[in-house]
Amino acid sequence: MVKDLPKIRRPLGLPDDAFEQRRPDKGQITKREVRAVSLYALGLRQDSVVWDIGAGTGSVSVEAALIANRGQVYSIERDTDSLPLLEANVARLGSENIHIVSGEAPGALEDLPSPDSVFVGGSGGNLSEIIEYAVSRLNPSGAIVVNLAVLERTQEAYRLLKSLGLATELTQITSSRGKEMPDGAVRLESLNPVFIVTGRRGN
Amino acid sequence: MVKDLPKIRRPLGLPDDAFEQRRPDKGQITKREVRAVSLYALGLRQDSVVWDIGAGTGSVSVEAALIANRGQVYSIERDTDSLPLLEANVARLGSENIHIVSGEAPGALEDLPSPDSVFVGGSGGNLSEIIEYAVSRLNPSGAIVVNLAVLERTQEAYRLLKSLGLATELTQITSSRGKEMPDGAVRLESLNPVFIVTGRRGN
Amino acid sequence: MVKDLPKIRRPLGLPDDAFEQRRPDKGQITKREVRAVSLYALGLRQDSVVWDIGAGTGSVSVEAALIANRGQVYSIERDTDSLPLLEANVARLGSENIHIVSGEAPGALEDLPSPDSVFVGGSGGNLSEIIEYAVSRLNPSGAIVVNLAVLERTQEAYRLLKSLGLATELTQITSSRGKEMPDGAVRLESLNPVFIVTGRRGN
Amino acid sequence: MVKDLPKIRRPLGLPDDAFEQRRPDKGQITKREVRAVSLYALGLRQDSVVWDIGAGTGSVSVEAALIANRGQVYSIERDTDSLPLLEANVARLGSENIHIVSGEAPGALEDLPSPDSVFVGGSGGNLSEIIEYAVSRLNPSGAIVVNLAVLERTQEAYRLLKSLGLATELTQITSSRGKEMPDGAVRLESLNPVFIVTGRRGN
Does the beta-carbon distance from B181 to D152 stay under 8 Å? Predict the structure, then answer.
């Protein structure tokens, strides 16, 4: 007997401005192009357990929950000031398989089911501890995807994932968006480059 | 009564080397980062009808079919030499909701159900005709996503989609991948930039 | 008998903020990295005649005049509101071999000596006429370098220079600058991409 | 009494293929765009003393010697197999103010006059020692410019220059060159990104 699954009532691929953002941190949201590449790198299955660590506006959580629509997404956020916005976005754009966890990683992760996919979008200085703990809990064939803006932490995340035995990759994404000028001509405006470090566990 | 859906047996997010490629065109595959951004721009729903025009190795089709797992994906390819590879990749990595269509767009599109999402990865010189026809058939709230390498065609696709009344966006994606050197240090190797032009129809 | 040459009293390579900028167009200055690549593409000799068309703040003129220190640099600017700033920058940072020409290209170019190197940084809509006229006057082995933000004009400039018989190249420059955060970590901030189209005349 | 200076008989701005390259390291040459930005960052004066450490093909040396045409350029190269190529390029494209120094930095730098501008294009593992020594000898208002491909060394060079009291900047350059296809359309091919770290000494 098959349970009636929630249909995807909205399409995958929300624009950045769909997510209410807290000021003055506006602009801190994972940008659409980076969100797309990060979601794709997570190796999501329909029944995946996902941890979104440093969930922020929830933009990764609500999209991961569409793809992993028989799975469970845990949105961990330590900044209590951000929680109302995260809750509002999940209520408006998310689905019932998203669970908001208020607390600081890695401590706040201990009671969660072991993940198949871990996204680290914000680390508040605990990057190494979070990665080490997440990897210790990562299911076979699971993936951890870290977004980084800082050169040094990028290198650190890469080395750490590799030293923990994961197949590790690094990608830098630079995207530019067309901006139409008054005469209809299109010029390009760059977004800041983001490093995406991915570690995959073998079977 | 709900039909038992095919589960996603493999994760979303295949690496480029999962797709057998024809020689000597190896390297023509839509690269992982661009595939991710393009898939995300397609605005896929679970029940979407998708046209993948110029399907090539099938890399976009097989991933779109995972997300639109109650929908239908039509993989149109005019190069008969490419068909065996496309068929093999769909058989190995795809799902039953993918339908290979041998023929040249736009003619080959006429008998297909109207699309919610159209990906144009290869256009063989018919770019304008393909876009015009696809837009004429595009369902409300549908999206058409075009990948382009050439400056001039990028501008042409952008203008055409706009003139046809779609909300049009242009993004250039430049990605670089970390390459590990013998001493473990990581340097960056660039992929060629790709332009992604997206047009969305209102409700 | 050798005339006493002006020494380079300041180094080549001024930062962007050396040039007073008019508001609200601040940010329109040719950025340092693009200025460097453009100057290098001009193929300057010590005795070059240089036209800087759409001189703006004069950032290209004052640097070209350092390298072509036995040559002559003509800084053409049609916007009379910009002239005081251009004059001030040339007086402060430039050398005596820079000549400001108030007027609109291509008309304002007619009385100037034929150029070895032409930089087009701003074209006010006359791009094709300016390029055609500049090429008609370009000395053997001369070069014309055009900076463009707009896709369509880039293609237009490339095709035009090529049709006029010049060896034509196109480069897109995307640069990101390190920005130090409060904790000393460095992240990258992108500048908008610029297209540089160069045409070179044979001997 | 002014000495008759060597005129610039060739223009500044050689293409990459002007420099004979050793195989199989072809491609290791500092690419034109990065050479331009690096030269510009060196803050060259007509009378500058320049050290080009890891001179390789000599592409930076011969261009720096054109700008610093009353100065002296020292081209240091430890790889004796590369010396014949360096010597040939300097003989063919360079000027009399270039001095080739065979040996390994920093040891080989001890007998050279103190530099105004230092370019580090190759470091063979001695990066920190080379930077420390170069900074210890750097004249007031001098600049040191380091080209790096590796993330980790980029961070290391940035931190070291900063800790030594220099005003430090980091730029990542990604350039793409237009490549014409058989039908005349132009697509973009990326060069690998390069990090340029610059330290400047105050007066």
Answer: no
